[in-house]
Fold this sequence. Notes:
This protein is of the alpha+beta class. It has helices spanning 22-38, 64-85; strands spanning 8-13, 41-46, 54-60.
Amino acid sequence: MSKFIVTGGQISYELLNNKLPAMEYEIAKIHIWLSMLNKGQKPKRWNKPNKNGTKVTFEVIQSQADYNKGLTELEDYIDQVNQQFELDLKLNR
C-alpha cells in the first residue's frame, strides 16, 4: 500500500477580488493569512487579484519552526500594510 503526504496546494479566495478597495483587501488578506497558518497552511505565493478572487499557493506546515517562520512573515507584511495605510494593526502571539 502506498503512502501519500500532502505537501502543499492552491486555494482560491473569491472574496479577495479586485473590486475591493486597497485597504480592505489588505486587511482581509491579513485575516486569511492568519487563518491559513492556524490550519497548518503557510502561504508561499499570492497571485494578483482579479474579478474571480485571489489564488494562494501554500505549503503544509511540518514543524513549529515552520509555523513560527510563517508568523514572522505575516508580522513583516502587517508592518508594510501599517506603513502604507497609516494603520496600527498588530499580531498578538
